[in-house]
Amino acid sequence: MVARILSTPAADALIARLESVHGPLMFHQSGGCCDGSSPMCYPEGEFKVGAQDVLLGRIAGACPVYIGAAQFEYWRHTQLIIDAVPGRGAGFSLEAPEGMRFLTRSRVFTDDEAAALDAEGPPRRGAGQ
Description:
The protein has 129 residues and is of the alpha/beta class. Helices cover 24% and strands 33% of the residues. A 4-stranded mixed beta sheet has the order 3-2-5-4. A 3-stranded mixed beta sheet has the order 1-6-7. The two termini are 17 Å apart.
């Protein structure tokens, strides 16, 4: 199975630190409003996932990562990789006061990976997935 979303060891470490304070987390890949196109980290359930939000998968063991349907259409051909680097986090994201920020890296799927994803069918949408 080809993963649409991955996380780096640096992101996993920051997620673990945030989970120790805030409990279970979730991510939503911002579509460009307010904080650019940053992955936004929230306590699980504190961001309202819409019926058209696409579940990309889970990172760091259990954190669901969603993206808006329109944004997904632009990025569907890429694997997204959540990373953490030093810097000021996005204003609405939990890592903002930590001196670190999440960012999204990407790579284009190979032809074989794209074919495998097409064979799986569309990803799930909406909360509770």
